[in-house]
Each structure stands twice: as structure tokens, then as C-alpha cells.
């Protein structure tokens, strides 16, 4: 199993939609972690190119993340009403809103490509593929990871034959990986998920959500995770394709929130004017709203208008460092070893004092 | 500092409103952790009795938690509208709703009592006392802890002279300890808070929120916390005053959510009919709504109607064990030592493999 073979138990989150690059995935894998190529929003042909480019940069294993198909088309009228609400923004920016079409992001073609030319790990977000699809990938030599956000999803993924689970806490930047886009009455944190899923499902867990320091990586390992998956922590690396306007915001301490404004599916980003203004009309309609707002977001990235951009970021984004990805991995590794040592030393000290403490105990009795 | 003197870095959350008892606080302190007496909702005289009763049961240090005064009276009309909405529930139960009065829970009297007869730690929830009040308690020999839920609150508490901070993540059961009752755009998890507050404030941090296993305690220690504070994990202990109907629900895996239905202040509890029905009319009006719903909740506890009770619970409540508090502490301690050892061993294995891995690296270059 790949998780047992990593030199450093750090996995790069896929970061679809811009930040993901072959250079980033290769740098993380080359440093002893596990890099990921994002299939999301790419054509099958572009995905094949990305895989080839990553292989040209590293012989180490890496993964590919695929968006599982979502429930089906949304109510077109809700999308139209939302488009009308956004129209003044588009006019102001001088762009036309995109056509709000439904698609499955080339799911079948991407799976066919990955079966024909396997990578070490295929992970899924937004749902659990069929046990048949998982078995086919496994037979081709890939491990299959499924992103989950609660115990029910974890059980479903385990029953379908997943090799491991990516346990995504509410702290995570970008889209919630939940199987259904819903307002979570319980938005479990990553530490809560490791506990409750760990009690019910016997699969290796990869912990994701708001992990920016080696101490936090050490934390999820201590809580039983086999590895930590970090996204925002890599978004300021020179290898990442993160837009400059997005990089600048990541370095600030501005708050984040969950929003459907940009894509019609809950995702965490740094709060900006579009989120503050259009949350209430924004419907649950993915990927229709993603296509609708794409030109506006592209304009914002090009013109540097942060208020028009989906500024995906985890809760601890201000701690993401601007340095090469290999250095991020090695610094996190050093920090995590030191963090575990410190915790051990502290506890050993407490034990020693406890042993010396007996006189007080007898006095108390 | 008390946190350096604990045999086991486990702190019992105060659990005001029923579960807190002198027996529980004494059992946790006696087991090598730090127990807490809840001053909240108690008269100053009852608090004095609780402190005396705890001292009669243990010579070990323990703490007292005090509710800081809240902003001031809420809009009476909003409270009246909410009372009217709840009226059918009261009629059905055959009780009269309580008078929705504003009070400060005897703040000045309780501080006077604690200055005159100090305990090891005085902690605060719902706000930060003045630097003058903190200095007076410190001069009397107490350490002062302040509960915080974001970086701004942490900075304010540090500037006011707090000895340590209780860092309460969004996973936590019961009331949010935030200085102002607000809908959190960013509801930071405990692991996120440890990272961002740890980067800005140089005070010992006590981590709280959804910690039910030794692995989770190990996690927050690895992330830099000086100790872990657990509430729900102690609510099924025989020493706790938790109502039977509440105990039964804790043992289930029913989901939790944040609600203002019961007290007019955001708190996390297991979702029940009252929460599902009255969230939208429930105003931000603490403690008025607390007093308003008190008879309804008391009726629910006595009659066993879980749908009328504030079923405070952290996100991992299903993992709370039914066993004596000393056994909870000692089991968590064993688990946390094992969890840190396992994480160390796993990393040492990865390092060894990394060292053996060189041939592949040279082949790749």
C-alpha cells in the first residue's frame, strides 16, 4: 500500500481549477510525499498530457483525483434567477456570463484513460464510484481513495471497496467533498472525523482540512491518520498555478466561509464581496453555476479584482508559506518530528512528577 | 503553573447546568487531571458550597469556571415574539414558560468570593474580564484562563493578563465561549485554532472541542496544546449530574448542530424537535431565553422527553464511555501514550525505508 511506502506521510491535495500543475505534483512526490494531478475541469486529453508531464518530472508514484458525477441537472429556473442577479456584475466587468450547462466532467472517459494507463492512486471527490468501477481500477493496479465527510459516506466507500479514505474536515479549503451538496447540520472537523470514522471503519485514513503546520500534521497522525493531505499549504509554492490575486489574499488573515456563490456547490474560500452579496440567491446547482460564473472569475483573476474570484482557502491559510514545494514538505516533516518529540518529552516529565508525587497522595488519604 | 504540574494533561470542562458536580471535579483532579466546578447558573452561596464540597473530596488543585457578563439586555419584543411561538409547547407540557429576565449570573459576587477564598484556576467563558479583575485574582493566587474562539479574542485575553487560554473549537458541545454571540462565518475547529492562535499568542493553550479519545488528546498535544479539555467525555460518568434522558442520547450517533433555541446563545447539542422547529424565531437573547425555556427543559428532563431538552453534546459524543471519571482519565492517558508511540514508530519506519530508498533516487536522476 502506497501509504506504507511514503518516506514522508504528506499528501498534496489535488487543487483542481488552477493551482494544480504537473510541476507541483512531481515536486511533492520527489520530496518523499505524494503529489496529485487534478483531473477536475480538464478534458481527458489534457489529463493525459498532465499525467505524461508529471511522469517526465518524477519516477515516484503520484495520484490522480477525479470528480465523481453529481446528482443530475439542477432546477434551470433557479439557475436563471441567479444568472439575472449576477448580470450587473458581468456588465460592470464587461464580460458575458457563461452558459450554465450540466456535465459529468468526462467521468467515463477519464476512468477509461486511468484503467488503460494506471497511476499509483486514483482518488474521488463529490461521491463514491460503483464497486464495479473501483474493482476495475484496482485490477489495473491503482489504489482507490474516496473523499468522505461523515460516517455514512465512510461506510459506503468501504463497502464499495475503497483502499483508503480521505477524511475531509470542515476546515478544508475549496469544495466540500460530500456525496451530496447539503447544508451540514454537523460539519465535522477533521479531528472529530478521525475519531468517529476510526471507530466504525477499518480502512487507512488520510486526514484533510486546515493543516498548515508540522504540529497539525503530527496531530492527525497521533489521532490515527496514515497521512495528512494539505492543499492550501502548497498554493503559494512557485510550482503552483495559483493566480497572483489569490496568492496575495492567502497571505492575509482574512476570514473564510462556506459559499455556493461561485460554483453552486458548498466550498470554503476567503470572504469577499461576491460572497457577501449573492449567497442568498445562489442555488445548489453544480456544475451549472461553475460554468455560469467562469468568465467573471477569469476576469477577476486577470484584472486582479479579488472580489470576483473564488478565493479557495482552508481556515489556516495565513500560515501557508511562499517556498518551493519540496521545501514545504521537508519543513513540515522536520516540524512534525519535533512536535511529536515535544509531546513525548512533556508527557514523560509529567509521569516523572507523578511518581515523585506519592507523598502528597498519602497525605491526602 | 498548574499545567506544568498535572500528572495527566487532561482538564474536565466545567459543564454548567446539571452535569457538573463536586464529585466529578474531585474525581478528575484525584486521578491526576484537573477538575472544574461550574459557577454558571449557581448562586454565590451554592458556588461556595460546591467549592467546599470539592475540597472535602480532594486535596488536589481544581478550577472554577465563571460566566463573564454578556453585552446587555436583548430586544424585549424579539424575546416576546419567541415566547409566543413557544407557548403551545408549554401548554402541551403543562408548564408555564419562565420570566425572560436579564442578569449577569452574580458576576461581581462570585469574583469577590473567589478573591477571598482562592482556587487554583479561575476560568472564564462568554468574555474576557477586565485586566483589573484578572490582576486581582492573580494577586489572590489563582491562575486565570480565558476561553477564546478566534485570534482576536486570544489577543484581547493575552493583553488583559490571562495566564492561559482555553481554545474552544467548533466541535465543542454546549455554549460557544465566544465574547459575542454571533453567527460565525469562520467557525474554527480546535486544530485550526491551535495553529493560528499558536502563531500569534505566546500563552499556554488548553485545547477544547470534540475530544473523546486518547488519540485526539495526543493530537492536540502534538499540535502544541499544554493540555486537553474534555466535557462530553465525562457526561456519562456516574459522578456527573447528567439527566438520564440526556445520557441515553449521548450514547447514540445522532447528529449535533448549533442552536439558539434553548438559551438565546449559540450552543451545540444533539438535534431534536425543538431545534428543528424553532431555530428561525429564536433570537440572540442570552440569558433571557435561558430563563424563558428553563421550565420546559426541566419538564423534559423529568418526563424523559428528549425533544424538549437542551441535549448539549460535542461532535464525537457517541464515543463518551459510561465509566467512573478516574477510569476515563486513566484510559485516555494510556490511549494517548500509545497513540504518540504509534505515530513515532510509523515515522521511524518511513525514515528507515527512505534511507534504503536511495537506489531508486539515483535511478531516477
Could you give a quick summary of the protein structure above?
Chain A is 44% helix and 13% strand.
Blueprint of the fold:
The structure is a homodimer of 365-residue chains.
Chain A: H1 2-5, E1 10-12, H2 22-30, E2 35-38, H3 44-57, E3 62-67, H4 76-93, H5 107-116, E4 121-125, H6 131-139, E5 143-148, H7 151-160, E6 164-168, E7 174-175, H8 190-200, E8 205-208, H9 214-222, E9 227-230, H10 244-250, E10 256-259, E11 267-270, H11 273-278, H12 288-303, H13 325-356, H14 358-364
Parallel strand pairs in A: 1-9, 2-3, 3-4, 4-5, 5-6, 6-8, 8-9
Antiparallel strand pairs in A: 7-11, 10-11
Helix pairs in contact in A: 2-3, 4-12, 9-13
Description:
- The structure is a homodimer of 365-residue chains.
- Chain A is α/β, with parallel strands linked by helices.
- Chain A has 2 domains: 235 residues, Aldolase class I (TIM Barrel); 107 residues, no CATH class.
- Helices cover 44% and strands 13% of the residues of chain A.
- Chain A is built from 14 helices and 11 strands.
- In chain A, the strands form 2 sheets. An 8-stranded parallel sheet of chain A has the order 1-9-8-6-5-4-3-2. In chain A, strands 7-11-10 form a 3-stranded antiparallel sheet, with no helix packed on it.
- In chain A, helix 2 packs parallel to helix 3 and helix 9 crosses helix 13.
- The longest helix of chain A has 32 residues.
- In chain A, 58% of the residues are buried.
- The C terminus of chain A is likely disordered.
- At the A-B interface, helix 8, helix 9, helix 13 and helix 14 of A face helix 8, helix 9, helix 13 and helix 14 of B.
